[in-house]
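REVIEWER CHECKLIST
Item 1: Sequence provided? yes
Item 2: Single chain? yes
Item 3: Sequence as submitted:
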Amino acid sequence: MKLTKGTNRRQLLKTLGSLPLIGSLLSQSAKAKSKEKKVDAVTAPTYVTRSDKLEYARLKKLDLNDPKTVAKQKKMPVGKIGNLTLGRLISGSNLISMNMHARDLDYVQALAAHYNTEERIFMTLKHCEEYGINSAVLKNHNFRQFRLSKYWDEWGGKMKWLADVITTDINKYERLLVEHLELGASAAYLWGGSSDIWYHQNKKGNIIKAFEIMKKYDIPVGICAHRIEPIMFCEKEGIVPDFYMKTLHHDRYWSAHPKANRRFMEMYEKDSPNHAEYHDNMFCHNHAETVEFMRHVKVPWIAFKVLAAGAIGAKEGIKYAFESGADFICLGMFDFQVKQDVQICVKAIAESKNRKRPWIT
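Item 4: Structure as written out by the authors:
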């Protein structure tokens, strides 16, 4: 069955204090729903400067088939996931969902929500496509928060998107999957929260069931996890998805809590006020073990949370991910970060040609 559908960073940050600003997990999933904005509250463009207004107009009319744009896009290395040819940098969706992982910085959520209006999101997506990022991760509720279909209908967007199907109820899985496909998804994967939770609850059979449901549809299918154990389970059971999504970042940053205090299910529980315990701050518990295990996996690997949600600098985090074996990375970006992150990504890939894990695609 097949369903188809058709400024400068420093200047910007200096201005943020006085202007409207661009813009899971059991408890966080509930939070995400409560944070969804009504369309009429987010549709107006958020202009920071006159040059920003001009950039909005430029991006909206930008022809993605123009030879100059195509030449720019071709600088992005690509790989294959199923029948899709994707740039090795994939746009994440947490900055659209407003899942900021801001630790104890209470103002960040409101700051991002004021900046990341509907029009700003369209600008970001078009900017991504201009520089060769031709895919994004999206969720069905993103289309309720913002009228995202306008990006394809009115902005000339070509962006493919991978559906992050969020539920821990296996009986709802197919209905939600179809909803994503009807919205235009080109691929789908099992939400990492589902994989982690089902594994921990000894409901591993649900991982297999969800995989089999996705395989009924003519799309590339993936398995996502924040912990390495669900990936190990899939490999042991002979499940062969078109791709894995697995978190990858080191733990050498200030807000990381000690290894001895890390627990499998901590990110699905209430954040601790203790700096030595989980506080929405870590997404890859055991990076060395992850790297070693994935070195022998013959399935394309999309690494995500590679900057530990902003705690690690882009150059350091992106370089570490590709050197350690990732075939693609998924990165949430504001519009003013896209060009620089693309440049970092292209350089990191070029410098990782002789890494230990072979490039799978």
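Item 5: Key structural point noted by reviewer: The chain has a mean pLDDT of 89.
Item 6: Recommendation: ____
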